[in-house]
């Protein structure tokens, strides 16, 4: 369980990193916290020629307020988001999600951008940021573009990232003071990947009533229907309907578990 | 005890001496040891569960770095043979690298040598093994049917051994008012010690020995087995266990990888190291716990057991491991299934079944965890049938204290204790009445409360009387310890057992301190090295404190006599007028310290008496308890759980252990053993399973798939000690190393079923996962 031979570069800035990532004579992978890529390297599931370490790029490690958004650098660690040392706009929701990711040693190294780029459907940020209505800013040889979370995660380990692109930033819209956040994931033990995730944001002043069912072997299922927050029968009907056409359609037990996860997330926002 | 307990003697809560290095990350494990010119190994392992090997494709440039069984056989290396003398046992031969046939996924088929492990893995990735796949046995109940594919072709069937215990219970079966039956299963597991297996082999040119530095529990046994495989005298082999990071049984055997490393070190005349990685462990060492029971209990209207009958199968995997063999586990089921209970009619048939899985290895508790899981479910089933509290039925069936010592239905000789009292104390400690009231009220979050109990007794430190009957490659006899007073009045102890987490460097020092009064800081334990210690079968079966601790006490007492003799001479007193106390020999008001006596023997011999013992202040003493049928510690575990009926998840709300270890040498070490065992038992109960697909592929190969409890899943365990000394051992100690891991699956199963009872649902197999619990609920709803 040792990685195959690879080269390693740690450029000083994003431009240098992008130049290395666009080399087409080599198989190149960006690496930040290495909490998913590391095991894959050691299991030899991936065998890149070159790893480009983006974990310390100054352009990717900041957190700032930009108008009505919080802008989080892609290489910001879960631990930093957990610790709350930034001008939060989510009433503690980001910190709460971060605190539930794996174990602290994983959070000390793992990054928000790395998690999104890896795109494991069971990952916390994949569901949570979708429910928050976040978007990601991608940097590549052709410049920058912004993609909403809803269009970024395309499938299991599949994203809108094009060759040579990295995630530069995550933009999270500010919650109103009246916003309520609900998040429930089904795990058998601390640190385990989620079996089913419910993530919901109810923010009436902004007209947001978004429910997300995650960990479904595909992109998170987004439900924009305010009635699911108030009507349990409606909630179950809509969820069952969406799950019936999802990748877990053939697994009644899994469908039920996902419905429970959603119901419990919604229960958190209903006083 | 001759002397009252001192601050560091028997019974003292002394902090572990070894923790200074272990907790600071300064231990020295196989992986920490490197030698000049060392090469590392990577094994090519079978990708399929059952196949004939047609050949290997090895790139020409790596020809000199890759070896197969053909190379080893040509050098005269012999397969591992672990034979049992029990009648009907079928012998398997396990070549260190597969010989023309593979029998489980992960079996070593070739080995690659390089300067680093990564480079060795680079080579291994280029080796192609050409195989003809064969039909596979993945399930023990299928493997015993006629026509099942044979794991070993020359056998008549896939059964290593069938045993039959007890007689007909037809009379009871025909007349008993209560009859309950269950199908019960435990899953195949891995032991996952924190440190994986590791071995560093080198040829010591000066000593003219092959030196195997290995993470082993049994250095002397590995030495014997290795010499047999290499075809050399044992004098040419030295086995050293450095710091070892947990064993639990996985390090209690001669491993094929050890044979390969030793052979290559001799062949290449280079140090050779292999360290097991976690993936290798989870695949090739998925080797324990898999039992199946078809079991029926008979009782009267009050729940008094009248009889028990069972057929039990153990999935023993593909080969018989050295030295414990493929049949220890199943044969043990037959002899210990009656547990701590007193009843008169018993029949049990057991099968050690060969399948295409890794060879079964005894894991902490050995068969007891499965046996307790089965038996304790039956006690609860009987209680349910007669409409009584399970703890009452349990307490009434246990061997009562007035019958101790007691020979049970299978001739197990229970030494001492009050088994029913452990149940009563557990009922009080868990607060059963409060939980019953809460069950009646219901939970605001919809979860369901359950309380479960499980009682067991643990035979430990089995000696010659037990083991000679198995006819396996080792039989424990008199355990020996060597004691040597140093010239400055310290003490060196040498024992053949091996400490891999048990804290023996502290507890054996406490034993010697109890006798001699030498401060434990000045007592040094040497262990785990065949070159430096007396022969021992090693650390297994919760035996070390009873056996080696007893030997240390015996050796210390003999040293005390020699000290008194010299001391009496120096004090000009008669030997019979002296006492050894507080580290000095006293005669009336006069005294001379052990340090002064040691100085006299070593550095001022002109002062010695003419009739001094010429053995000096160094000796080896042997020890066996008065009865070596084993000590019987016991415990009742009580657990309260909340089951989420929507998700099938289980939260442990409280966990109580009421246990009797006899005299405790160090209660903190006992508590540590219990807590660690309970953690592993919770793993067995709720999390751990290696699933196999129909082709025999294990479906878990990382910790993402194979779940073990972490610190957030293990509750605070409340431990209550009862202390009934064993009448047979030094100080009255009993072995307790495994007990913690025995009862949790049974207690948790009973608690979960107590919670599910209003739904009419029941689980009978481990692990009790959310899927299993939800299935049971769905089944009950149909």
TrEMBL record, chain A:
<keyword id="KW-0560">Oxidoreductase</keyword>
<keyword id="KW-0285">Flavoprotein</keyword>
<dbReference type="InterPro" id="IPR016167">
    <property type="entry name" value="FAD-bd_PCMH_sub1"/>
</dbReference>
<dbReference type="InterPro" id="IPR036318">
    <property type="entry name" value="FAD-bd_PCMH-like_sf"/>
</dbReference>
<dbReference type="InterPro" id="IPR016169">
    <property type="entry name" value="FAD-bd_PCMH_sub2"/>
</dbReference>
<dbReference type="Pfam" id="PF00941">
    <property type="entry name" value="FAD_binding_5"/>
</dbReference>
<feature type="domain" description="FAD-binding PCMH-type">
    <location>
        <begin position="1"/>
        <end position="177"/>
    </location>
</feature>
<dbReference type="InterPro" id="IPR002346">
    <property type="entry name" value="Mopterin_DH_FAD-bd"/>
</dbReference>
<keyword id="KW-0274">FAD</keyword>
<dbReference type="InterPro" id="IPR016166">
    <property type="entry name" value="FAD-bd_PCMH"/>
</dbReference>
<protein>
    <submittedName>
        <fullName>Carbon monoxide dehydrogenase</fullName>
    </submittedName>
</protein>
<dbReference type="InterPro" id="IPR051312">
    <property type="entry name" value="Diverse_Substr_Oxidored"/>
</dbReference>
From TrEMBL, chain B:
<dbReference type="InterPro" id="IPR037165">
    <property type="entry name" value="AldOxase/xan_DH_Mopterin-bd_sf"/>
</dbReference>
<keyword id="KW-0500">Molybdenum</keyword>
<dbReference type="Pfam" id="PF20256">
    <property type="entry name" value="MoCoBD_2"/>
</dbReference>
<dbReference type="InterPro" id="IPR036856">
    <property type="entry name" value="Ald_Oxase/Xan_DH_a/b_sf"/>
</dbReference>
<feature type="domain" description="Aldehyde oxidase/xanthine dehydrogenase a/b hammerhead">
    <location>
        <begin position="24"/>
        <end position="135"/>
    </location>
</feature>
<dbReference type="InterPro" id="IPR008274">
    <property type="entry name" value="AldOxase/xan_DH_MoCoBD1"/>
</dbReference>
<dbReference type="Pfam" id="PF01315">
    <property type="entry name" value="Ald_Xan_dh_C"/>
</dbReference>
<dbReference type="Pfam" id="PF02738">
    <property type="entry name" value="MoCoBD_1"/>
</dbReference>
<dbReference type="InterPro" id="IPR016208">
    <property type="entry name" value="Ald_Oxase/xanthine_DH-like"/>
</dbReference>
<keyword id="KW-0560">Oxidoreductase</keyword>
<dbReference type="InterPro" id="IPR000674">
    <property type="entry name" value="Ald_Oxase/Xan_DH_a/b"/>
</dbReference>
<protein>
    <submittedName>
        <fullName>Xanthine dehydrogenase family protein</fullName>
    </submittedName>
</protein>
<dbReference type="InterPro" id="IPR046867">
    <property type="entry name" value="AldOxase/xan_DH_MoCoBD2"/>
</dbReference>
């Amino acid at each position: 369980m040792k990685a195959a031979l690879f080269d390693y570069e740690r450029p000083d800035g994003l431009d240098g990193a992008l130049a290395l990532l666009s080399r087409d004579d080599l198989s190149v992978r960006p690496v930040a916290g290495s909490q998913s890529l590391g095991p894959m390297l050691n299991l030899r599931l991936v065998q890149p020629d070159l790893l480009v370490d983006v974990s310390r790029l100054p352009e990717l490690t900041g957190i700032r307020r930009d108008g009505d958004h919080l802008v989080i650098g892609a290489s910001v660690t879960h631990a930093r988001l957990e610790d709350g040392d930034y001008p939060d706009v989510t009433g503690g929701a980001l910190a709460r999600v971060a605190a539930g990711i794996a174990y602290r040693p994983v959070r000390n190294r793992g990054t928000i951008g790395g998690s999104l780029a890896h795109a494991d459907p069971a990952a916390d940020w994949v569901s949570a940021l979708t429910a928050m209505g976040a978007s990601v800013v991608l940097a590549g040889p052709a410049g920058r573009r912004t993609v909403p979370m809803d269009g970024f995660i395309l499938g299991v380990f599949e994203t809108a990232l094009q060759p040579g692109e990295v995630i530069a930033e995550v933009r999270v819209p500010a919650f109103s003071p009246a916003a309520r956040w609900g998040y429930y994931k089904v795990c058998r033990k601390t640190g385990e990947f989620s079996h089913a995730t419910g993530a919901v944001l109810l923010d009436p002043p902004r007209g947001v009533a978004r429910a997300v069912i995650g960990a479904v072997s595909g992109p998170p299922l987004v439900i924009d229907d305010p009635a699911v927050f108030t009507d349990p029968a409606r909630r179950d009907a809509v969820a069952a309907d969406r799950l019936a056409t999802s990748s877990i359609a053939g697994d009644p037990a899994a469908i039920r578990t996902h419905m429970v996860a959603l119901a419990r997330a919604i229960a958190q926002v209903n006083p | 005890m001759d002397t009252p307990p001192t601050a560091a003697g028997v019974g003292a809560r002394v902090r572990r001496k070894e923790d200074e290095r272990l907790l600071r990350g300064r231990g020295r494990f196989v992986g920490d040891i490197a030698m000049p010119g060392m090469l590392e190994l990577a094994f090519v392992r079978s990708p399929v569960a059952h196949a004939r090997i047609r050949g290997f494709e090895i790139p020409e440039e790596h020809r000199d770095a890759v070896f197969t069984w053909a190379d080893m056989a040509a050098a005269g290396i012999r397969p591992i043979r672990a034979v049992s003398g029990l009648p009907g046992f079928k012998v398997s031969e396990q070549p260190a690298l597969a010989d023309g046939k593979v029998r489980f996924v992960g079996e070593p088929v070739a080995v690659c040598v390089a300067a680093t492990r990564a480079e060795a893995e680079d080579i291994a990735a280029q080796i192609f093994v050409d195989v003809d796949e064969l039909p596979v046995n993945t399930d023990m109940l299928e493997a015993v049917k006629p026509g099942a594919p044979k794991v070993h072709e020359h056998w008549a069937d896939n059964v290593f051994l069938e045993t039959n215990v007890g007689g007909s219970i037809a009379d009871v079966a025909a007349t008993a008012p209560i009859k309950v039956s269950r199908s019960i299963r435990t899953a195949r597991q891995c032991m996952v010690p924190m440190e994986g297996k590791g071995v560093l082999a080198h040829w010591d040119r000066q000593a003219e020995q092959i030196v195997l530095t290995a993470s082993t529990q049994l250095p002397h046994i590995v030495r014997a087995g290795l010499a047999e495989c290499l075809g050399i005298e044992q004098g040419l082999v030295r086995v050293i266990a450095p710091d070892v990071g947990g064993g639990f049984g996985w390090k209690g055997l001669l491993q094929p990888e050890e044979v390969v490393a030793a052979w290559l070190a001799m062949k290449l005349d280079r140090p050779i190291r292999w360290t097991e990685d976690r993936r290798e462990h989870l695949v090739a060492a998925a080797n324990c716990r898999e039992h199946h029971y078809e079991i029926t209990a008979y009782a009267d209207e009050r729940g008094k057991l009248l009889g028990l009958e069972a057929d039990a199968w153990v999935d023993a995997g593909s080969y018989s491991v050295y030295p414990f063999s493929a049949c220890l586990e199943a044969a043990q089921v037959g002899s210990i299934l009656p547990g701590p209970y007193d009843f008169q009619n018993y029949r049990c048939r057991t099968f050690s079944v060969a399948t295409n899985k890794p060879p079964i290895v005894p894991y902490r508790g050995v068969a007891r965890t499965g046996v307790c899981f089965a038996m304790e479910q039956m006690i609860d089933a009987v209680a349910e049938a007669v409409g009584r509290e399970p703890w009452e039925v349990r307490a009434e069936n246990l061997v009562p204290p007035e019958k101790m010592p007691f020979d049970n239905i299978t001739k197990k000789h229970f030494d001492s204790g009050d088994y029913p009292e452990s149940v009563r104390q557990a009922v009080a400690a868990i607060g059963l009445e409060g939980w019953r009231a809460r069950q009646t009220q219901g939970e605001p979050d919809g979860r369901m409360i359950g309380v479960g109990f499980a009682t067991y007794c643990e035979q430990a430190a089995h000696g010659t009387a037990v083991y000679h009957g198995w006819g396996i490659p080792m039989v424990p006899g008199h355990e020996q310890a060597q004691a040597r007073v140093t010239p400055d009045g310290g003490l060196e102890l040498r024992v053949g057992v091996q400490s891999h987490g048990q804290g023996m460097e502290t507890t054996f020092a406490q034993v010697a301190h109890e006798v001699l009064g030498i401060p434990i800081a000045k007592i040094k334990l040497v262990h785990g090295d065949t070159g430096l210690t007396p022969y021992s079968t090693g650390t297994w079966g919760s035996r070390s404190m009873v056996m080696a601790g007893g030997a240390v006490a015996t050796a210390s007492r003999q040293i005390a006599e020699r000290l008194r003799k010299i001391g009496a001479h120096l004090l000009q007193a008669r030997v019979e007028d002296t006492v050894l106390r507080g580290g000095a020999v006293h005669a009336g008001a006069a005294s001379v310290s052990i340090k002064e006596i040691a100085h006299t023997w070593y550095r001022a011999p002109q002062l010695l008496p003419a009739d001094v013992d010429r053995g000096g202040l160094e000796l080896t003493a042997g020890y066996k308890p008065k009865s070596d049928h084993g000590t019987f510690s016991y415990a009742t575990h009580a657990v309260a759980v909340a089951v989420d009926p929507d998700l099938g998840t289980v939260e442990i709300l409280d966990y109580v252990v009421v246990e009797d270890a006899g005299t405790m040498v160090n209660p903190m070490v006992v508590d540590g053993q219990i807590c660690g065992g309970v953690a592993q038992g919770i793993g067995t109960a709720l999390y751990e399973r290696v699933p196999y697909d129909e082709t025999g592929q294990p479906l878990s190969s990382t910790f993402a798939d194979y779940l073990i409890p972490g610190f957030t899943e293990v509750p605070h365990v409340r431990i209550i000690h009862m202390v009934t000394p064993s009448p047979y051992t030094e100080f009255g100690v009993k072995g307790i190393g495994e007990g913690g891991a025995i009862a949790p699956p049974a207690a948790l199963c009973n608690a979960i079923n107590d919670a599910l009872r209003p739904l009419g649902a029941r689980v009978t197999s481990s692990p009790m996962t959310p899927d299993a619990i939800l299935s049971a609920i769905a089944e009950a709803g149909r």
